[in-house]
Design goal:
The protein is built from three helices and two strands, in the order ββααα. It has helices at about 45-50, 55-70, 75-90; strands spanning about 1-5, 15-20.
Amino acid sequence: MTSTHLVGSTGTDAAPVTFIGTDVGTRNATSTGQVPGPASIADSYADLLRPLTARQRKGVIARLSVGYFEGWRPSRNEVSELVAQELRRGDPGRP
């Protein structure tokens, strides 16, 4: 079985990813009819990440992912501080 799902924090800037031999059709569709993608480390921080650009958000999610595999489990306050740091730095790709 081959399935294509969007992977990303918002679904709007996500790239399609194909899963081969994976039964992903067992998840329930949302009220909009879309099947949710795989769980993300950033799911519980979506409200904190909202003010960031897509580029900044992906950078913070990458930092969270690396930290997770190194044993770091950030509090909401720590994630909030990361977001504030990114906002202070700005996005060089932003017009």
